[in-house]
């Protein structure tokens, strides 16, 4: 597969008007193929593998929050990066997730071709599924290279998406508490 991707990137170089034989580009198809595979490695794993049993019994029923999870993804419309942060919270009902696992879940879905809205929902539903939480909230704030480098060329716009499930949807107090904790008062 990587061999084939190499030859596709070689064609891309020719298509944009480059000479793939010039010195600086000789290894570029191979490197680009490797990079692309890395940026899409989320397809090579699944939720069960990522969580890997790291669920622990707990009688804590207060909000658990992981803030500022770095996020690197590729938009499915232009194959250009979008980069930002995810904030994830849930209200446990007997089980809590290992600390690093929230970040791993974010990464698994981010390292696929995405639109930000779907990414936000997939993370929320995955956390809901593995923890059986009473509620899950996910907010993603990201800058999209496809807006910054092309098209409208808006350098400073940050796109914000959120998905609220269960208690975060039903109770405005719970939702407000979460939004305050991530520094958004509204
Ligand atoms: Zn795009």
TrEMBL record:
EC number of the protein: 3.5.4.16
SUPFAM superfamilies: Tetrahydrobiopterin biosynthesis enzymes-like
Pfam families the record matches: GTP_cyclohydroI
Binding-site residues for Zn(2+), renumbered to this chain: 75, 78, 146
Gene3D superfamilies linked to this entry: 1.10.286.10, 3.30.1130.10
Keywords, sorted A to Z: GTP-binding, Hydrolase, Metal-binding, Nucleotide-binding, One-carbon metabolism, Zinc
GO molecular function: GTP binding; GTP cyclohydrolase I activity; zinc ion binding
Domain GTP cyclohydrolase I span(s) in chain numbering: 8-182
Top EC group: hydrolase
Entry-linked InterPro entries: GTP-CH-I_C/QueF (IPR043133), GTP-CH-I_N (IPR043134), GTP_CycHdrlase_I (IPR001474), GTP_CycHdrlase_I_CS (IPR018234), GTP_CycHdrlase_I_dom (IPR020602)
Protein origin, superkingdom: Bacteria
Pathway assigned to this chain's UniProt record: Cofactor biosynthesis; 7,8-dihydroneopterin triphosphate biosynthesis; 7,8-dihydroneopterin triphosphate from GTP: step 1/1
A GO biological process held by the record: tetrahydrofolate biosynthetic process
Catalytic reactions of this protein: GTP + H2O = 7,8-dihydroneopterin 3'-triphosphate + formate + H(+)
A GO cellular component entry from the record: cytoplasm
Stored PANTHER family: GTP CYCLOHYDROLASE 1 (PTHR11109:SF7), GTP CYCLOHYDROLASE I (PTHR11109)
Description of how the protein assembles with itself and partners: Homopolymer.
Similarity comment: family membership: Belongs to the GTP cyclohydrolase I family.
Annotated NCBIfam families: folE, PRK09347.1-2, PRK09347.1-3
HAMAP family: FolE
Protein name stated in the entry: GTP cyclohydrolase 1
């Amino acid at each position: 597969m990587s061999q084939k991707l190499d030859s596709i990137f070689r064609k891309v170089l020719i298509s944009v008007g480059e000479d793939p034989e010039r010195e600086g580009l000789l290894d570029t198809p191979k490197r680009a193929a490797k990079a692309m595979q890395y940026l899409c490695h989320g397809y090579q794993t699944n939720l069960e593998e990522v969580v890997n049993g790291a669920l622990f019994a707990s009688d804590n029923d207060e909000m658990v929050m992981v803030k500022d999870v770095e996020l690197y993804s590729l938009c499915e419309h232009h194959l250009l990066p979008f980069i930002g942060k995810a904030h994830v919270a849930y209200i446990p009902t007997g089980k809590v997730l290992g600390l690093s696992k929230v970040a791993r879940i974010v990464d698994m879905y981010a390292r696929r071709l995405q639109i930000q809205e779907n990414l936000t929902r997939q993370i929320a539903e995955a956390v809901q599924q593995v923890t059986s939480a009473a509620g899950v909230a996910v907010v993603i704030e990201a800058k999209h290279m496809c807006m910054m480098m092309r098209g409208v060329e808006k350098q400073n716009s940050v796109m914000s998406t959120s998905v609220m499930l269960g208690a975060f949807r039903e109770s405005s107090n719970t939702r407000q508490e979460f939004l305050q904790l991530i520094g958004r008062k509204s």
